[in-house]
């Protein structure tokens, strides 16, 4: 792998999963950036790590996907803060990037987004390799198990309640 091919992968709008690149990477500088794009968010970008404008857009999109996975209703303010974008227009641009991946409804007046369904999720860290830049992966295998258990309990409660 060289710098050009790494940047090309990270800027590719169709790629949202980088775990396989992270797992198969033997060069530390590439392993760090693939770790960030696999499991990190905007706030995890280390000082001194240089990202192109398109790479910043991608890490913001991945951050938004993390938010969509973890919350049912999000305010524009919370998205702006988490993704570090200055205005509602930037929030809308990020949401457009996830239109085919996440079903959601936007309330322009209330300045919020309701997540209806996530068709894809972020990469899950399962301890395969030591993390080099992230103190803890945002989505671990245990986090996923807890989330799935809560979801199952919610479904059982909802289905039993509706009968």
Give keywords.
three-stranded antiparallel sheet, LAMI_0H18294g1_1, 3 strands
H/E element sequence: HHHHEHHEEH
> Spans of 5+ residues with little confidence (pLDDT < 50)?
none
| CATH superfamily caption | Winged helix-like DNA-binding domain superfamily/Winged helix DNA-binding domain
Tell me what portion of residues adopts beta-strand conformation: 5-15%
* Quaternary structure classification: single chain
CATH topology (fold) name: Arc Repressor Mutant, subunit A
The largest pleated sheet is described as: 3 strands, antiparallel
Number of helices in the DSSP assignment: 7
Order of strands, main sheet, comes to 1-3-2
Q: How many strands in all? A: 3
Mean pLDDT figure: 89
What level of helicity do the residues show?
40-55%
Give the class-level CATH name: Mainly Alpha
**Class from helix and strand fractions:** mainly alpha
User: What is the approximate shape?
Assistant: globular
Rg over CA atoms? 17 Å
CATH architecture annotation name: Orthogonal Bundle
Number of domains: 1
Termini separation: 56 Å
Organism: Lachancea mirantina
Protein name: LAMI_0H18294g1_1
């Amino acid at each position: 792998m060289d710098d050009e091919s790494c940047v090309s992968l990270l800027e590719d709008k169709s790629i949202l999963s980088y775990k396989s690149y992270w797992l198969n990477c033997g060069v530390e500088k590439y392993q760090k950036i693939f770790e960030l794009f696999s499991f990190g968010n905007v706030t995890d970008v280390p000082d001194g790590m240089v990202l192109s404008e398109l790479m910043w857009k991608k890490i913001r999109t991945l951050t938004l996907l993390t938010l969509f996975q973890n919350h049912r209703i999000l305010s524009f303010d919370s998205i702006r803060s988490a993704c570090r974008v200055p205005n509602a227009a930037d929030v809308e641009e990020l949401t457009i990037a996830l239109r085919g991946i996440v079903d959601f409804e936007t309330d322009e007046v209330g300045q919020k987004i309701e997540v209806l369904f996530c068709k894809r999720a972020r990469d899950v860290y399962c301890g395969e390799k030591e993390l080099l830049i992230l103190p803890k992966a945002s989505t671990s295998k245990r986090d996923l198990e807890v989330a799935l258990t809560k979801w199952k309990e919610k479904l059982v409660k909802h289905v039993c309640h509706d009968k």
